[in-house]
Design goal:
6 strands, 10 helices, globular, about 375 residues, alpha/beta, about 55% helix
């Protein structure tokens, strides 16, 4: 059966790799990317923010990475991104730093810090000058590249468009996963290529099949597809508006320069000077027209940015509402005083998640 479900779509990706029941699938993926030695391989993981279908349905505008911790305490941040914006590297570095920096409590020492590893699958090309589809980044010396500053920082980027192997060319587990992510929507679960006939990939195909056969799952998947498509459209519109504004400004500058050159050439003759003035006036009109177009393009860009901000604000509010509801439910079950919703909304998503987690732990510990 061909599920026609794209595993790169956020809902499907997190359903496959972010559910506690599918932890072995995530382990297989991470080991494939990281190429640890036998003794350093990941044997077990705890998914710190396990994927929950109900939360996803109530929070359609939020795209959250998969966070996990292995048996050695190493922390992993795994994400699937459909397109790369100019600020994407800064975004990835920021999320890595957040996870790394949140490890220590006030009384903890630095020697308790664990390696923090970012693994990003990108359905776009960020580094066009590098032919490799799998890029690893470390803090290294510029004069001595083999000298690594710290073993606690790792960043892996897999640019899927650069992966062009056919099914019969798959050489290792990472090849298999890249092929699955690129072609999963069209794979037949009953006739997988030899390189994909592993328990982990077969389990991933089962997840895609369940999504395709279940009305509610399919609806949630389609909602995720629509949202991601909208985000790409907003990003493209903003980029196009900026490009048009830059071109209009460049055109205006060139026209002004041409007008100045023309005026200088004809300054010695009165008749020629009048002709030059007329041309300068025409050029100025074109410049004003170009400037007007640039302002219009800028306005559209600002409008697109405003929509993106509104969408982000709604996403954060929806996220917080969901977490606040969980906190209130836990407080009710624990017979604790209800914290005012307005007070809770002043906290960040991460703070609310931590509070909800602690309340949940109290519930689980309650006899």
């Amino acid at each position: 059966m061909i599920p026609h479900i794209d595993p790169k779509v956020d809902y499907a990706f997190k359903k496959i790799f972010g559910c506690e029941a599918n932890a072995p699938v995530l382990i297989d993926l991470l080991n494939a990317v990281l190429h640890f030695t036998a003794e350093a391989c990941i044997a077990s993981v705890e998914i710190v923010n396990p994927f929950n279908e109900k939360d996803a349905a109530a929070d359609k505008l939020s795209v959250v990475d998969i966070k996990a911790r292995d048996q050695r305490g190493r922390l992993f941040n795994v994400e699937m991104q459909m397109c790369a914006t100019p600020e994407y590297p800064e975004r990835v570095l920021y999320y890595w730093a957040k996870i790394y920096g949140n490890q220590l409590e006030r009384a903890d020492d630095y020697d308790q810090l664990k390696p923090t590893i970012s693994v990003t699958f990108l359905n776009d090309v960020l580094f066009r000058d590098a032919a490799d589809f799998h890029l690893e980044f470390r803090l290294r010396s510029s004069k001595h590249p083999a000298l690594v500053f710290s073993e606690l920082q790792w960043m892996h980027l897999i640019e899927l468009p650069k992966f062009r192997k056919a099914s019969e060319e798959l050489a290792d587990t990472l090849d298999g996963w890249c092929y699955f992510l690129k072609n999963g929507a069209d794979l037949d679960s009953g006739g997988l290529p030899t390189g994909l006939q592993t328990p982990a990939v077969q389990k991933a195909m089962e997840v895609l099949t369940v999504i395709s056969k279940t009305d509610l799952e399919r609806e949630r998947y389609e909602a995720s597809v629509r949202w991601e498509r909208d985000q790409r459209s907003y990003a493209k519109a903003a980029a196009k508006a900026q490009e048009n504004a830059a071109k209009a400004q460049e055109y205006a500058e060139k026209e002004k320069q041409n007008a100045e050159i023309e005026r200088a050439r004809t300054a010695n003759a009165e008749g020629i000077a009048r002709q030059a003035a007329a041309k300068a006036k025409e050029a100025a009109a074109k410049a004003e027209e170009a400037t007007a177009k640039a302002e219009e393009a800028t306005a559209k860009a600002e409008e697109a940015a405003a929509k993106a901000e509104v969408a982000a604000a709604k996403a954060e509010k929806a996220k917080k509402d969901g977490i606040v509801d969980r906190i209130h439910l836990s407080q009710e079950l624990l017979n604790l005083p209800m914290t005012a919703r307005e007070e809770l909304h002043t906290q960040s998503v991460e703070e609310l998640e931590e509070r909800a987690k602690k309340l949940k732990e109290q519930l689980l510990a309650k006899p």
